[in-house]
Design a protein that fits this description.
This protein folds into 2 domains: 5-95 and 210-260, Rossmann fold, CATH 3.40.50.1860; 96-208, Rossmann fold, CATH 3.40.50.1860. Strand 1 (5-10), helix 1 (14-25) and strand 2 (30-35) form a beta-alpha-beta unit. It is an alpha/beta fold. The chain has 12 helices and 10 strands. The protein has helices spanning 14-25, 47-61, 74-87, 96-106, 118-123, 125-133, 147-152, 155-158, 160-176, 193-199, 208-222, 242-249; strands spanning 5-10, 30-35, 66-71, 92-94, 111-116, 138-143, 181-184, 204-207, 234-238, 258-260. It binds D-glutamic acid. Residues 10-11, 14, 40-43, 73-75, 117, 120, 148, 186-188 line the site of D-glutamic acid (DGL).
Length: 261
């Protein structure tokens, strides 16, 4: 049988947190991941730009035989997944819907904090999804423009003090609103999950990087398209500076090797 892949993309490191989940939960699957390092960060770009990058990324990934695609980027999901689904005849998974579902289930007081990029917050997509599930739930959004650049520089390892200060700046106002659940509404933020739990042990975290796996697993089983390999092949592509990206990416996946597109 011809080898088929699960395509995954993000602007950068965040998508690798979803790839890690796929490797852990679905180790037999072949994965092709694209980091759009040429256009990172997406969070400060216009909706039109994000749609254009998203469609370009899917075109690149479609050079491989894809059985499904995961948009492992909330910014792209919130701005461009509807267009992508119209343009491409492909099973496309987003990260927002499953994270919104999990947050509504997780929160007891129905006060839900949302950390995300400026563009994801502006889209109002999380609020919409959450209110479709529970109209009484309150969502407290916080745009975090400084987190992605800090994470891409590796500050989660090299400068934990600055990272913690930044997290206080963004999360303290949400604590003042009595949120009991915090959505990490950017896949990059999953990298900070441990640090956030260390600072705010009472917060329940819902990571957008992780919730999509159940949807993906159910699709592979229901459509009977699981890989039969023991260990899947993993291909990592970057749209810019592929060689130098290995260093920071290997903080997440040891010995990772990126190729140019
Ligand atoms: N990781 C992405 C997200 O989930 C976007 C980060 C960025 O490029 O701003 O939103």
């Amino acid at each position: 049988m011809k080898k088929q892949y699960i395509g995954v993309f993000d602007s950068g490191l965040g998508g690798l947190t979803t790839v890690k989940q796929i490797i852990e939960k679905l180790p037999q699957e072949n994965i092709v991941f694209l980091a759009d390092t040429k256009h990172i960060p997406y969070g400060s770009k216009t909706r039109e730009q994000i749609i254009s990058y998203t469609l370009e990324n899917i075109d690149i990934l479609k050079r491989y035989d894809l059985k499904a695609l995961v948009i492992a980027c909330n910014t792209s999901d919130s701005n461009a997944s509807d267009t992508a689904r119209k343009v491409h005849d492909l099973k496309i998974f987003g990260v927002i819907a499953p994270a919104a579902r999990k947050a509504v289930k997780t929160s007891e007081n129905k006060k839900i904090g949302l950390l995300a990029t400026t563009s994801t917050i502006a889209s109002g997509r999380y609020e919409k999804q959450i209110h479709d599930l529970d109209e009484k739930a309150e969502v407290f959004p916080m745009a975090c423009p400084d987190l992605v650049p800090m994470i891409e520089e590796g500050a989660f390892i090299s400068d934990k003090k600055a990272m913690k200060e930044k997290l206080h700046e963004y999360i303290d106002p949400l604590i003042d609103k009595h949120v009991d659940t915090l959505i990490l509404g950017c896949t990059h933020y999953d990298i900070l999950a441990e640090l956030i739990s260390e600072i705010f042990p009472d917060l329940r975290l819902v990571s957008s990087s992780r919730c999509v796996i159940d949807d993906l697993k159910a699709f592979l089983e229901d459509d009977d398209v699981q890989s039969v390999e023991k260990t899947g092949e993993r291909i990592y592509l970057a749209s810019k500076d592929a060689e130098s990206y290995d260093k920071v990416a290997s903080l997440l996946i040891p010995d990772i090797r990126f190729q140019s597109i």
